[in-house]
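fyi for ur records
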Amino acid sequence: MLADGLTYARQLGATHLVNAATLTGAIGVALGMVNGGAFSNDDATFEKFNAALETSGEKFWRMPLGEEYADLIKSDIADIKNTGGRYGGACTAAEFLHKFAEDTPWIHLDIAGMAWIDEKRPYIAKGPSGAAVRSVLEWVRTIKGNHQLQTWIYSLHY
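which gave:
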């Protein structure tokens, strides 16, 4: 579904893409319940998002993409497969989505480790956290005046 959404957004003329999803448990293994994983195919786009984190207060750690991960999702039957095996699961899943974002500036936020709060805290209730919402809104707010920005597509899947 995320791949279809990214493809459709590009067909509609989106100039930038962002998606947030509880895509892999692997990101929780890698980063725990503190940081979400952030993947991007564009350094400038990621830097603007990263700057928004200071205001939003959320924590995202940039994770790698690259040909090594793309090689793990090559298929003998199809163009690509949606799993790269046991190791690097968050990176191979993001690389799968990267194939559909193509060269459109894109950020994928894997929020699996931080999407649900198990215990009530003074600053957040137990239950769904709304992870990534504050950060994406702050990011868009800070760059909305950019004339090169024509269309924003944001899909949030829990």
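Helices lie at 2-11, 26-31, 43-56, 67-72, 89-101, 133-143. thats all i got for now
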